[in-house]
Amino acid sequence: MQQPARAKSQRAAARSDHACSDGCVAAAGGCILGSAVTAQLVHGQAKPPGPLDGKLSHIAFAVTDVDKTVKAFADVFGAPAPPIREYRDIPWGPEYPTKVMNGRIASLVVNGVSFEFIQPLDGDSPWKDFIKKSGDGIHHIGFEVKDVPAARKALQAKGGHWTQFYANWANYVDMHDAGVPATFEVTSAPAPGEKLSPPAKLSDVPTAK
Question: Residues 118-172: pLDDT tens digits?
Fold first, then answer.
């Protein structure tokens, strides 16, 4: 027997409302469960900020001929060769009192990465020591951090040696004795409206600690 159209319509609407209700409840439950799981994952992965948190600043090569190397590097990427600057009397770290280093340095940015090329000149330097042991190659990796002294001390606490004090905002720490085959340079950017301090002199080098 054919049912009246109005009765059919009412029953269909009721089924639709029931399905919507069940679907909304399921969706809400899934949303709540998903949020709880996500919160647990994020909570489990989170860690408080540390002194070594930061970002890549640059990758630096120690080379025997900076003119030749930087030109070849620039040619590979179709970039103009950058100017080369000479730096003298850069203090070693306080573990090496009275020692300074001299070098010719060029910087080039490729694909958003800053590359540095350093040719050691007269006198001792970590760059010259590196080339004697390993030949031309990557000497150090630079990281920009919020607090250079805190980052340097954190690396020293892991067994690193403070081998350069370019300024209070740029220090080398050699990590080889800590089992890490690299030197890190920790640097910081100036605050808005401020300028970086000039390169340090021997008299500016703090005592080893």
Answer: 999 999 999 999 999 999 999 999 999 999 999 999 999 999 999 999 999 999 9
Same domain, 9 and 101: no
On whether both 27 and 80 belong to a single domain, the answer is no
Q: How many residues does the chain have?
A: 209
Q: Is residue 101 part of a domain?
A: yes
Do residue 35 and residue 107 come from a single domain?
Answer: no
Final residue belonging to a domain, choices 46, 65, 83: 46
**Rounded Cα distance, 176 and 32, in Å:** 49
Q: Which amino acid is at 195?
A: K
CA distance 37 to 40: 5
**In sequence order, which ranges of the chain are alpha helices (DSSP H)?**
5-45, 66-77, 126-134, 148-157
CB 208 within 8 A of CB 162: yes
Q: Are residues 90 and 145 in the same domain?
A: yes
Q: What is the pLDDT of residues 11-70, one digit of tens each?
A: 554 454 544 445 444 444 444 444 443 444 344 566 788 999 999 999 999 999 999 999
